[in-house]
Amino acid sequence: MNDSQNNALTAAEIAQLWTGYLNSSMCHCIFSYFSNTVEDQKLQSMLQEGLQLTEKHIQKLTSFFKNEGLSVPYGFKVKEDVHLTAPKLFSENFSLHFIYNMAMFAVNFYALSKTLSVRSDIVEYFNTCLLEVNEYETKLKQMLVDKGLYMRSPHVIPVKETSFVESKKFMGGLFGDKRPLNVIEITNIYTNLKRNALGKTIMVGFSQVAQSKEVGQFMTRGGDIAAKHTKVFSELLEESYLPVSMSWDMEVTDSTSPPFSEKLMMFMTTSLIALSAGIYATSAASSARKDISLNFIRLSAEIANYAEDGANILIKNGWFEEPPHPADHDELANR
Question: pTM of the predicted model, to two decimals?
Answer without folding.
Answer: 0.92
